[in-house]
């Protein structure tokens, strides 16, 4: 039983690509005790995947915007599957869905569940076609994954049907008492996404970042959510009028300052979180004192600028990740910002403020993988 999740990145660059590939290819995560590393390159070499991705983009003059797409294929905790079989299934999944693209597949065995990362170049090496994610992409990929898993003799997630009750059932109340109700987690995720979304597009992006697919169209009366465990849920099956499509659209009309809501939406308590906050300034004037962290990070940055081997770079980035509690992608974003700043004007205070700002994006936090584990699955990333 496996599920496929899409991992979005709000900002992408060659630094992010390098950081993500460096993370998913770590020896401690992919090396078997009695065998080789579970890393495969489709239409590319594992050792030179980064340069091949960038070379393809340069060849077709498509170096901007989205650099790559990141998916995970995760098997349930306790699934009777070997790492080698999981890796074979992930490779078959890549061949079936992305035959004309360079794909790096890395299977991780260091978590309670076996899962594979697929990093897909956004430009086809075959014809230069740019890859785009449509609203139904994740649903289509999950169906494809199910077909492959069934062919290998594994069970798939069952189709879930809902009752008509607007109050929690006895089973739901028991799940709530145990703290593992998937519907409660869906509602909490909606609350969190609404707290930092000014538009419907922002909301959908923030939900997809947590592994929830959102179907919200003008022609449908309800909003439909598909959870990371594959279960669909309409807004009229949630407990609270604020989750209705009507109230959420009224709220976004207000937040975009199109018009005042004609009545209470139920989301008034979230509005303070959306008030503008002063943006952190890395290169703001600052005194020399309080530079211990700054000097240590600048020391690593200067070391990396000299051009070092991949092993030495990985070691340095790992040390920076431990020092800042950022993921690999977050560390590369930090280094990118430092490279464009006046080093004499940085101190520990404004550097820590900037690191805290980076951590507002879940994929930049070093503990994101552990924090996202639920339903026996994980949206594995930085």
User: What integer is the average pLDDT?
Assistant: 81
Q: Report the radius of gyration as a whole number of Å.
A: 22 Å
Classify the helix fraction into a percent range: 40-55%
CATH topology of the largest domain: BirA Bifunctional Protein, domain 2
The CATH architecture of the largest domain can be given as 2-Layer Sandwich
* DSSP strand count: 8
First and last CA, distance: 24 Å
Largest β-sheet summary: 5 strands, antiparallel
Low-confidence stretches: 159-166, 284-288, 369-382
Spell the H/E element sequence.
Answer: EHHEHEHEEHHHHEEEHHHHHH
Strand order of the largest sheet: 1-3-5-4-2
What structural category do the secondary elements indicate? alpha+beta
Tally of structural domains: 3
Shape: globular
Bin the strand percentage.
Answer: 5-15%
Tally of helical segments: 14
């Amino acid at each position: 039983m496996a599920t496929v999740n899409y991992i979005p990145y709000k900002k992408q660059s060659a630094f992010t690509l390098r950081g993500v590939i460096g993370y998913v290819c770590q020896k401690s995560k992919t090396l078997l005790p009695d065998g080789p590393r579970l890393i495969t390159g489709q239409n590319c070499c594992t050792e030179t995947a980064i340069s091949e991705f960038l070379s393809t983009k340069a060849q077709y003059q498509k170096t901007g915007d989205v650099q790559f797409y990141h998916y995970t294929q995760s098997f349930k905790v306790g699934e009777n599957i070997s790492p080698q079989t999981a890796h074979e299934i992930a490779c078959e999944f890549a061949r079936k869905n992305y035959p004309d693209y360079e794909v790096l597949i890395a299977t991780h065995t260091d978590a309670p569940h076996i899962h594979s990362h697929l990093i897909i170049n956004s430009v086809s090496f075959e014809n230069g076609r740019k890859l785009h994610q449509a609203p139904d992409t994740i649903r289509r990929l999950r169906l494809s994954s199910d077909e492959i898993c069934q062919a290998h003799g594994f069970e798939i997630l069952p189709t879930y049907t809902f009752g008509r009750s607007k109050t929690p059932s006895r089973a739901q109340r028991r799940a709530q008492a145990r703290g593992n109700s998937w519907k409660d987690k869906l509602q909490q995720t909606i609350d969190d996404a609404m707290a930092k979304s000014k538009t419907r597009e922002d909301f959908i992006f923030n939900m997809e970042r947590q592994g929830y697919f959102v179907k919200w169209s003008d022609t449908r009366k309800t909003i439909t959510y598909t959870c990371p465990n594959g279960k669909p849920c309409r807004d009229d099956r949630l407990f609270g009028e604020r989750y209705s499509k009507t109230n959420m659209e009224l709220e976004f009309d207000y937040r975009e300052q199109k018009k005042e809501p004609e009545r209470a939406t139920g989301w008034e308590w979230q509005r303070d979180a959306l008030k503008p906050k002063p943006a952190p300034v890395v290169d703001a004037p600052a005194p020399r004192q309080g530079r211990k962290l700054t000097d240590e990070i600048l020391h690593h940055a200067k070391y990396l600028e000299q051009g070092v081997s991949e092993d030495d770079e990985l070691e340095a980035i790992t040390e920076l990740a431990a020092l800042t509690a950022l993921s690999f992608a977050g560390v590369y974003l930090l280094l990118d910002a430092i490279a464009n700043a006046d080093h004499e004007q940085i101190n520990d205070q404004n550097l820590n403020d900037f690191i805290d700002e980076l951590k507002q994006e879940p994929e930049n936090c070093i503990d994101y993988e552990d924090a996202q584990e639920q339903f026996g699955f994980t949206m594995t990333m930085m």
